[in-house]
Design goal:
single chain, alpha/beta, BirA Bifunctional Protein, domain 2, three-stranded mixed sheet, globular, transferase activity, BPL_LPL_catalytic, Ligase, ligase activity
Length: 256
């Protein structure tokens, strides 16, 4: 039986006041999932920022590295799920699926079920992908999406506050070499000996036959992919949710 899900879309043409909330929009809607005992799907654009994971908080020179990113125009935020540093910008498209959940034993099932719409949407575009680990990629994880042996999307999960949130970003036109170099220097400045491999990551437009792919076509494909698993009901953000997102944005941002 197909489950009904709220659908929230933050388009490229969204008001700047809403677009700046992109780093915390998935968490905001996940709290709605817990409160309403309902599922939700989010597809969103964003302005550039860097998202860090829990382990990054322990880096010995984190403040210096955050200041360096800020000087380069990247605000820095902490994620509520697992993973490590990633760069999100206009050349990516972010997605998230949330549902009521307090059961940590279905962690793996959550990844596979809630992110399946992304795999199906990409298949509609002619891109075969699956879960896997791209060794040496930034934010390396076992449930990233891989195509042609390279990472095309990072996916993380958080179970807290009565919800499960599976979220990630598709690398559509982002330069994997430049992004990896930026994150490599961030880690060096932060005092980490982590070595990243730019060849472990690629963008969708660098896949065979995909050079003309647009972010808009991927956006449509994501909605179609999720529609195979949910009855999507578009619902805008409420004033209360916008206020909560503003609060979370302040709480999640790292200041050096």
């Amino acid at each position: 039986m197909t489950v009904e899900a709220r659908f929230v879309q933050l388009s490229r043409t969204a008001p700047p006041s809403q677009l700046r909330l992109s780093p915390v929009l998935a968490e905001t809607i996940a709290r709605w999932s817990a409160d309403r005992q309902s599922s939700a799907v989010v597809v969103r654009h964003q302005n550039p920022y860097v998202l860090l994971g829990p382990k990054d908080r322990r880096l010995p020179h984190l403040s210096d590295a955050v200041r360096w990113l800020n000087r380069r125009g990247y605000p820095v935020f902490m994620r509520i799920g697992g993973g490590s540093a990633v760069v999100l910008d206009e050349q990516c498209l972010s997605f998230a699926v949330s549902q009521p959940c307090r059961d940590f034993t279905i962690w793996e099932a959550n990844f596979r079920r809630l992110a399946q719409g992304v795999i199906d949407g990409l298949m509609d575009l002619g891109i075969a992908s699956g879960f896997g680990r791209a060794v040496g990629s930034y934010c390396e994880g076992p449930y990233d999406l891989v195509a042609n042996g390279r990472k095309i999307a990072g996916i993380a999960q958080a179970i807290r506050g009565g919800f499960a949130l599976v979220s990630g970003m598709l690398l559509i036109r982002q330069d994997p070499v430049a992004t990896t170099a930026l994150l490599q220097e961030f880690y060096q400045r932060a005092g980490s000996d982590l070595v990243l491999d730019p060849n472990a990551v690629t963008a969708l437009t660098r896949l065979p036959g995909m050079s003309t792919l647009t972010i808009e076509s991927v956006e449509t494909a994501l909605r179609d992919g999720f529609s195979q698993h949910f009855r999507l009901q578009q619902q805008p953000l409420t004033p209360e949710e916008l206020a909560l997102a503003e609060q979370l944005l302040s709480e999640r941002r790292l200041t050096a």
